[in-house]
Automatic annotation (TrEMBL), chain A:
<keyword id="KW-0449">Lipoprotein</keyword>
<protein>
    <submittedName>
        <fullName>ABC transporter substrate-binding protein</fullName>
    </submittedName>
</protein>
<dbReference type="InterPro" id="IPR050490">
    <property type="entry name" value="Bact_solute-bd_prot1"/>
</dbReference>
<dbReference type="Pfam" id="PF01547">
    <property type="entry name" value="SBP_bac_1"/>
</dbReference>
<keyword id="KW-1003">Cell membrane</keyword>
<keyword id="KW-0472">Membrane</keyword>
<feature type="signal peptide">
    <location>
        <begin position="1"/>
        <end position="19"/>
    </location>
</feature>
<keyword id="KW-0732">Signal</keyword>
<keyword id="KW-0564">Palmitate</keyword>
TrEMBL record, chain B:
<dbReference type="InterPro" id="IPR051393">
    <property type="entry name" value="ABC_transporter_permease"/>
</dbReference>
<keyword id="KW-0812">Transmembrane</keyword>
<feature type="transmembrane region" description="Helical">
    <location>
        <begin position="105"/>
        <end position="125"/>
    </location>
</feature>
<keyword id="KW-1133">Transmembrane helix</keyword>
<dbReference type="Pfam" id="PF00528">
    <property type="entry name" value="BPD_transp_1"/>
</dbReference>
<feature type="domain" description="ABC transmembrane type-1">
    <location>
        <begin position="68"/>
        <end position="282"/>
    </location>
</feature>
<feature type="transmembrane region" description="Helical">
    <location>
        <begin position="7"/>
        <end position="31"/>
    </location>
</feature>
<feature type="transmembrane region" description="Helical">
    <location>
        <begin position="72"/>
        <end position="93"/>
    </location>
</feature>
<keyword id="KW-0472">Membrane</keyword>
Length: 432, 290
């Protein structure tokens, strides 16, 4: 009997420990209502932007002692999975960072989030300061669900200034020059383009999107995404894939490109092991914290070369509005008020400025102080202002379609058949 | 009689908590997961019942069978690599002097390192330019043998098997040493009198006495290899172009990257079925030898 009691006791302790309930709102002795809100984001790293954002949250917490902010910073690599797992379990935090495009569409379609239009109505000046098109990805039937706190610009051509000067080379601006430059560096025994494509989104997001947009034009791509009069087996898309294959055939990438990760490739380029690299704006912030100023000053930045005879514009940069904070549809009452305050504090005029000054792109009109940011970022920031945006492939394709493009590009790098890759992409995009 | 009943009651009582936890966290999820396999579900919102469609797609998917083949490579590497190496080391290290204890700990060490760290370490070892393997090859004049071990589809599946072998020799070594030390001294003495020394002793005395343990270890090897995930996921993520895709990474990628929870669940169910079949086959094969 004693043993039975002991077992029951253990069971009860376990159950009690698990059943710790979470009450969102409790009223304290003072008149101010105590609320608890949770926020998840991916600013977990040690880069300047991540630190600035975490600081802003800490400041908010300090200024609002009656609000208890439960913050979780999740590393970027696992962030999407963590969020979709809790979404599947219907346990989303009150506020969470999202990515523009199909990721947000899913939450909206399933009514897991609620609009924050009231914030924009209360602060019209703030709303008008966003760049053209910045709010579009978060506009569903006239209701706004988020304010972007980032701009994704995924394709810049970085180059080693010294190498180009020493060899008396012009930075390539056309496809032919580009191929010639690649051959030139190969003859000298220097890897022409650094790329770390182990996580296979890299080739797609940084390089192929820009090439494909130059060949097919944006309209064709949007039609193909919707399977509206265009498919991924069209000759024009095969041609885009062939342009990528041309780079591979000219040995533009090192043999191990598929086993390096993006950071390794960035470092390898910065150390002068490769002459050029096509990569996103994130490279600037990661290099800014990891290499010396001297190395940084030796890096030049421009747009990916144009492709003659292509259907698209020559000097686009793939990208557009980036992530922003979403408000869970379950957050109500005082918690909702507090959550809206926090979202505003993290996306308002001041926040956009803080983010830009941490060498990160924003979709917000502001005068950047050249003194504060690093020169490479300043150059890139102005480059983006002058260029038009082209769609980033994986933000528009279905996740199965994007996965097929990612794997297909790796296949082409391993010598796979272009037409078979195109068929796989088409098939993946039409499942579901 | 009464004490029997009492004992049985005690057994039930003591097993119950573990059993409850086990059913709650293992058995029920397995069945729920096969149930999800009948749905088209993105992980959010409504799931649509689609019958056996996911299962049919899994069976017809060439990537699934490639992943299974890759898993078999790992099974082969484990059974043919881990078991003989662990057995050999156990025979060499059965005494307990300082040196042998040191080697034993060294062999066991990878087991206590997190598998993610193992994956990262070997990722660097296999690196094209900075990796130890290629550096050694270059220095001894075998430049032509250097390659991108993890990116070249001709070799990368064998390359990722090596860390897995290295990682799990330790526990098998311990099991084997314990078994050898448990062989009764009388048998060994009697064998010695009959002139069984050296190889003879190994073949006629030690191995037969260990056969039961070896069988268990082989089964552990097979089931462990079919569950393999972490090292491969860290080193290659199943790439490039799905050339090192194994069943678990294929399931993970479909569930958490492509958001096809139903399809992913169908894959996990197939993994269980295939594992059971393989273990049954190995049981039958090994029974014959008894």
């Amino acid at each position: 009997m004693k043993k039975l009691l002991a077992v029951l006791l253990v069971l009860m302790i376990t159950l009690v420990a698990c059943g710790d309930s979470e009450d969102n709102v409790e009223v304290s002795g003072d008149d101010v209502e105590e609320v608890k809100i949770s926020i998840w984001h991916n600013f977990a790293g040690d880069d300047l932007r991540a630190r600035s954002v975490r600081e802003m949250i800490a400041e908010f917490q300090e200024a609002n002692p009656h609000i208890e902010v439960d913050e979780q910073a999740i590393p970027v690599d696992g962030y999407r999975q963590r969020i979709s797992t809790v979404a599947a379990a219907d346990e989303l935090p009150d506020i969470f960072l999202t990515y523009a495009g199909s990721f947000t569409d899913e939450f909206q379609k399933n009514e897991l989030i609620q609009p924050i239009t009231s914030l924009f109505d209360e602060n019209p000046e703030w709303k008008d300061s966003f760049l053209t098109g910045a709010l579009e990805p978060y506009n569903y039937d006239g209701e706004l669900y988020s304010a972007p706190v980032a701009m994704s610009a995924t394709s810049f051509l970085y180059y080693n200034k010294q190498m180009f000067e020493e060899n008396d080379l012009e930075v390539p601006s056309t496809w032919e020059d580009f191929i010639e430059t690649i051959d030139f560096f190969n003859d000298k025994g220097i890897t022409p383009l650094a790329m770390g494509n182990r996580a296979p989104w890299v080739a797609q997001s940084t390089t192929f999107g820009a090439i494909a947009d130059r060949v097919t034009g944006t309209d064709w791509f949007m039609n193909a995404v919707n399977q509206d009069g265009a498919t991924f087996t069209d000759p024009i898309f095969i041609e885009a894939l062939n342009h990528f294959k041309e780079l591979v055939d000219h040995n533009a990438y090192s043999e191990g490109a598929n086993s390096l990760d993006n950071t390794q490739a960035e470092q390898s380029f910065a150390q002068g092991n490769a002459a050029m690299m096509i990569n996103g704006s994130w490279t600037i912030s990661s290099l800014a914290t990891s290499v010396s100023e001297e190395v940084l000053n030796n890096i030049g930045i421009t747009t990916v070369p144009s492709i003659e005879g292509g259907q698209g514009q020559g000097n686009t940069i793939t990208g557009g509005p980036g992530g922003g904070y979403l408000l869970s549809s379950k957050t109500e009452g005082a918690a909702k008020e507090a959550a809206l305050d926090l979202i505003y504090a993290l996306s308002n005029d001041n926040a956009q400025k803080v983010i830009a000054e941490s060498n990160s792109m924003v979709m917000y009109d502001l005068d950047l102080n050249e003194e504060v940011v690093n020169p490479l970022f300043y150059e890139a920031f102005n480059l983006v202002r002058g260029a038009a945006f082209a769609p980033v492939y994986d933000l528009h394709l279905t996740s199965a379609g994007a996965e097929a493009v990612n794997n297909g590009l790796q296949e082409i790098m391993l010598g796979g058949d272009v037409e078979k890759v195109a068929e796989n992409i088409q098939r993946a995009q039409t499942t579901n | 009689m009464q004490s029997r009943l009492k004992l049985r009651g005690l057994l039930v009582m003591t097993l119950l908590p573990a059993l409850l936890l086990y059913s709650f966290f293992v058995i029920i999820p397995i069945f729920r997961s096969s149930y999800y396999g009948f749905f088209e579900w993105s992980g959010m919102g409504d799931a649509t019942f689609i019958g056996f469609q996911n299962y049919i797609e899994v069976v017809q998917s060439p990537i699934f069978w490639r992943a299974f083949k890759n898993n078999l490579i790992i099974v082969g590497a484990s059974v043919l690599g881990q078991v003989p190496i662990a057995l050999g080391l156990a025979l060499l290290l059965r005494k307990s002097n300082m040196f042998q204890r040191f080697v034993r700990s060294a062999v066991f060490l990878p087991m206590v390192i997190s598998t993610v760290v193992v994956g990262l370490i070997w990722g660097y070892i296999f690196d094209l330019e900075l990796g130890v393997i290629n550096t050694v090859l270059r220095n001894i004049g075998l430049e032509s043998w250097t390659r991108a071990w993890l990116a070249d589809p001709d070799v990368n599946m064998y390359a990722v098997s090596i860390p897995i072998i290295w990682n799990y020799i330790g526990p098998y070594l311990i099991i084997f040493i314990a078994t050898i030390q448990n062989i009764p001294g009388e048998i060994e003495e009697a064998a010695l009198l009959d002139g069984a020394i050296g190889w003879k002793k190994l073949i006629y005395i030690i191995l037969p006495n260990m056969w039961g343990t070896i069988k268990v270890v082989i089964i552990l090897c097979i089931s462990g290899s079919l569950k393999a995930f972490d090292q491969v996921f860290v080193m290659t993520g199943g790439g490039p172009a799905q050339s090192t895709e194994i069943l678990a990474t294929y399931m993970y990628n479909n569930t958490f990257l492509v958001y096809r929870y139903g399809f992913g669940s169908a894959i996990s169910t197939m993994i269980i079925i295939l594992s059971l079949i393989l273990i049954a086959i190995s049981q039958i094969l090994m029974k014959r030898k008894d």
